[in-house]
Amino acid sequence: MSIIKLHDKYFKSYISENEIQQAVQSLVKQVENDCKGETPIFIGILNGCFMFVADFVREYNGDCEVSFVKLASYQGTESTGKIKQLVGVNEDLEGRTVVILEDIIDTGNTLQEIYKIFENKKLKQLKIATLFFKPDVFKKELPIDYIGISIPDKFIVGYGLDFDGIGRNFASIYQLTTKPTMKNIVLFGPPGAGKGTQADSLKEKYSLKHISTGDVFRFNIKNETELGLLAKSYMDQGDLVPDEVTIDMLKAEVERNSDANGFIFDGFPRTESQAAALDTFLEEKGEAISGMVALEVPEDLLVDRLLERGKTSGRSDDQDESKIRNRFNEYNTKTAILKDYYQAQNKYFGVNGVGSIEDITVRLSEVFDKL
User: Fold this and answer.
1) What's the CA gap between 22 and 24, in Å, rounded?
2) d(Cα 179, Cα 189) in Å, to the nearest integer?
3) Is residue 217 within 8 Å of residue 230, measured between CB atoms?
4) pLDDT at 46
5) What is the mean pLDDT of residues 16-36?
């Protein structure tokens, strides 16, 4: 659940993968009931329908054939109203039941062209099944036999549907929305990479609120807030503080700074479930994570740096190489999971963390400026 950016447009999560699958299963059952005792041919309308057709056919219990026809009517986020048949159907369809599998029907222009294509094929019957339907803009007096989900007239992407060529690979559906007003950054860096120093510099430069998980915990425990007392009760028993408590603390911190231009999240999220919860919370406010920015520094260089720091810091975990490397292992494991999560949203940015503080700030700023 999140707000994503494709080209210059923003899209918010709208229909979940689970809801889509339920709609597909419902459509399959209806078609199965109407096609008992025969072998229908399912024809998908490319390019958008490929995921729908694949899932539909996998669910279908019975013999069937599959083919495709390719039409085009969209340019950007607007329908041109002009349909061009690019690839036709070559199968002999005489006496057959044909079920058209459409990803989406809006104005009905494509549907009208479909009826023209098949009107002289001597079919037994022609059925239309669409996963998504926009009743508000449907202009044709043409039958639609099976409808999965009716939606308002807003542009959508995902599950095979694209915006100027991208977005088809998302498993769920995203709806066109307004641009978020905040710059929200998840800042990651291995131990010793200087993440805290960079966060202090960047929060001033971009007028962002720096939220450190450690600082938030200490604030709540010191001030004996309800969440602080709850977290301390787990810690006193030697247990991990549950995700929901940590998330509630972060939410409270965001709400206390609701007038901020955005946030640098430091030390949070640490798991995919935390990242998803953060996405959901921000989406409810019409906002989103702008990007995950990770400082990338060779491990051996950082080990030497931390061992040198340990000579003056007094920290025992900076004086034992095995403990230091264990911290790296923990960091790499967590970061790898989150890297995949944010990369799937085109929101992961790795930055070279080797060099002077000023040079690294410049590199980070180049990324921040684009988010």
Assistant:
1) 5
2) 28
3) no
4) 85
5) 97
Give pLDDT tens digits for 90-138.
778 999 999 999 999 999 988 998 898 888 889 999 999 999 999 999 9
Tokens of 214: 């450690």
| Radius of gyration from C-alpha coordinates of the chain | 27
CB crowding 69-88: b at 16 or more within 10 Å, else e: bebebbeeeebeeebeeeee
- Number of C-alpha atoms within 13 angstroms, CB side, residue 239? 10
Cα 125 from Cα 163, distance rounded (Å): 33
**How far is it, in rounded angstroms, from Cα 236 to Cα 234?**
6
Annotate 183-247 with DSSP letters as a single string.
EEEEEE--TTS-HHHHHHHHHHHHT-EEEEHHHHHHHHHHTT-HHHHHHHHHHHTTPPPPHHHHH
Residues 201, 202, 203, 204, CA torsion sign = positive
CA dihedral 46→52→58→64, nearest 10 degrees, is -50
Q: What is the DSSP pairing of strand 262-266 with strand 209-212?
A: parallel
Cβ-Cβ contacts under 8 Å for 83 (sequence gap 6 or more): 71, 72, 73, 109, 110, 112, 113
The β-bridge relationship of strands 65-75 and 78-87 is antiparallel
Q: CB of 109 within 8 A of CB of 83?
A: yes
pTM of the model: 0.65
- Residue 335 DSSP SS3: helix
Strand partners, 35: none
Tokens of 30: 């209806």
Run of H or E including 330: helix 321-343
- Residue 164, both tokens: 């100027």
311-342 pLDDT, tens digit each:
887 777 778 888 888 888 888 887 778 999 99
Element housing 302 (H / E):
helix 299-313
Catalytic residue list: 195, 270, 309, 315, 327
